[in-house]
């Protein structure tokens, strides 16, 4: 039962990360336009100002409607086949819910007064695509996406004969969804206020927990990386009301990231909201991981230092620049689990220190994101200088703790294995996109990398679905016992996580290229 629950959570996490993959681009764009529209730097009405306002409106159209995009993304991500049709049905379902909920609120005289979301603040209702509905935030999209995916997977193969044949497949899925969505549109008007009270209580707990709450948030966000469930820790705080909600200049913003972006765009806001404490989990990606990498290099056996440097340096640079830590983390997660525990504790501790020091920044990825988000906003408002100071201290602490533990307990970290294998081409740099073809055992001719990965996964007949997140190829399989971890590692993987009927292969920065190769070999076009 426990394994089944974990598997379902991983499937949901895999689907949810689909739309999340695009949000860093949206956030970076909004942060950049906030500089272009800041009257402290540019003249109001100038060409730069007008361009910034225009581009900002395009980007906020996405950020302000995350519920819709989560609905479509989750339905498409969780659908086992005909993903495009699942997405289309999810779109129709979303609008049917909005109309149904609005109509029921109107018929029962429950519709709140107000012409804007600012007017509706505190009423439990909001405007979504012009419909005044029960305010469920991104949870509406998540719930609808899961429902659509479930019904889609259950009935997408249903077919009828004769004149009724046109009502089969995805059309039958839509027919099945009609009463479900109708009941949901009515039910949430009575049930959601109680759920919202629970969410509010959770938010209140995090606020009252103070420094300990930040530590726990930071610790779990890192400690759960091997399971792939860490996305379920940070995403509610970053994009939903669990992370806070605020009216800024007459507009409602929900989630730590939207609140931060709205605040830095307004130079008159001198004190940023404490919800930014949920946005500092990138400290370890920029700083802490450098201490880990240095400890691995310094503790490696002398004869292996050159090889270790070749492997670790590109991974450390990747993490520093764009926040992709897993290629380096998977070098010790399973071989030295005590280090992973210490690593997570130190990261949570330094996030707590940043909160106590009054740091109000957005640092969820690497140094590039950090610079774009925080430097233009000013050191007085964000206290980013303190963050950098704490980050440099984290490097020293990580280095000292790892070096002590590795040498004290003779841990088999990179360069200290009894038998260090020769590096293959795919291991040389996680910054490289192209990986040379490699040879199968007993063959004289090289085979395509996509073919080699599929072969290591048990062949096309063993693969049910293929997805990816920021760094991992996530594959549902028929039989996980036939997966060849050794061959996967030779394709350039940094690590392999096996679960019942599911495998996650960590490729780091080149994951998009790897996913394309696998899709092409499997003839996946959607």
From TrEMBL:
Residues 3-418 form the PTS EIIC type-1 domain. InterPro entries: Glu_permease_IIB (IPR036878), PTrfase_EIIB_Cys (IPR018113), PTS_EIIC (IPR003352), PTS_EIIC_1 (IPR013013), PTS_Glucose_EIICBA (IPR050429), PTS_IIB_1 (IPR001996). SUPFAM superfamilies: Glucose permease domain IIB (SSF55604). Keywords: Cell membrane, Kinase, Membrane, Phosphotransferase system, Sugar transport, Transferase, Transmembrane, Transmembrane helix, Transport. It is a multi-pass membrane protein. Signal peptide: none annotated. Its main location: membrane. Residues 447-526 form the PTS EIIB type-1 domain. One of its GO terms (cellular component) is plasma membrane. One of its GO terms (biological process) is phosphoenolpyruvate-dependent sugar phosphotransferase system. It comes from the Bacteria. Coiled coil: none annotated. Pfam families: PTS_EIIB, PTS_EIIC. This is PTS transporter subunit EIIC.
């Amino acid at each position: 039962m426990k394994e089944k629950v974990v598997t379902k959570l991983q499937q949901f996490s895999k689907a949810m990360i689909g739309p999340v993959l695009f949000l860093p681009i949206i956030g970076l764009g909004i942060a950049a336009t906030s500089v272009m529209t800041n009257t402290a730097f540019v003249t109001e009405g100038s060409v730069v100002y007008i361009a910034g306002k225009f581009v900002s409106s395009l980007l906020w159209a996405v950020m302000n409607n995350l519920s819709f995009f989560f609905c479509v993304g989750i339905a498409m991500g969780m659908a086992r086949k005909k993903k495009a049709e699942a997405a289309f049905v999810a779109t129709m379902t979303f609008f049917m819910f909005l109309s149904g909920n609005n109509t029921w609120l109107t018929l029962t005289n429950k519709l709140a007064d107000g012409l804007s979301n600012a007017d509706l603040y505190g009423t439990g209702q909001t405007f979504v695509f012009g419909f005044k509905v029960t305010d469920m935030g991104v949870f509406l999209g998540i719930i609808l996406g899961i429902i659509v995916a479930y019904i889609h997977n259950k009935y997408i193969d249903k077919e009828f004969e004769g004149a009724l044949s046109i009502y089969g497949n995805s059309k039958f899925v839509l027919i099945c969804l009609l009463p479900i969505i109708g009941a949901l549109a009515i039910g949430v008007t009575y049930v959601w206020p109680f759920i919202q009270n629970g969410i509010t209580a959770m938010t209140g707990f995090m606020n009252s927990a103070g420094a300990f709450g930040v530590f726990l948030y930071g610790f779990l966000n890192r400690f759960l990386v091997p399971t792939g469930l860490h996305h379920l820790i940070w995403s509610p705080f970053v994009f939903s009301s669990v992370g806070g909600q605020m009216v800024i200049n007459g507009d409602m913003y929900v989630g730590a990231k939207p609140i931060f972006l709205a605040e830095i765009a307004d130079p008159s806001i001198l004190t940023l909201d404490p919800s930014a404490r949920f946005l500092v989990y990138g400290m370890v990606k920029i700083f802490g991981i450098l201490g880990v990498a240095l400890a691995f290099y310094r503790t490696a056996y002398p004869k292996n230092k050159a090889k270790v440097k070749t492997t670790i340096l590109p991974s450390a640079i990747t993490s520093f620049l764009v926040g992709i830590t897993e290629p380096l983390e998977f070098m010790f997660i399973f071989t030295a689990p005590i280090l992973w525990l210490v690593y997570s504790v130190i990261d949570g501790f330094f996030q707590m220190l940043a909160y106590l020091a009054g740091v109000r920044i957005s640092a969820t990825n690497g140094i590039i994101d950090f610079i774009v988000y925080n430097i233009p906003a000013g050191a007085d408002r964000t206290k980013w200088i303190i963050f950098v100071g704490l980050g440099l201290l984290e490097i020293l602490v990580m280095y000292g703790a790892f070096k002590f533990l590795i040498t004290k307990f003779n841990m088999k970290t990179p360069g200290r294995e009894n038998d260090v294998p020769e590096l293959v081409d795919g291991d040389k740099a996680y910054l490289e996109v192209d990986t040379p073809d490699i040879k199968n055992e007993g063959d004289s001719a090289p085979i395509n990398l996509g073919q080699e990965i599929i072969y290591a996964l048990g062949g096309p007949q063993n693969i049910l679905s293929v997805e990816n997140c920021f760094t991992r190829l996530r594959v549902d399989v028929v039989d996980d016992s036939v997966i060849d971890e050794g061959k996967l590692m030779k394709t350039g993987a940094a690590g392999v996580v096996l679960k019942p009927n599911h495998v996650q292969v960590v490729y780091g920065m080149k994951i998009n290229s790897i996913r394309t190769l696998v899709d092409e070999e499997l003839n996946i076009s959607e």
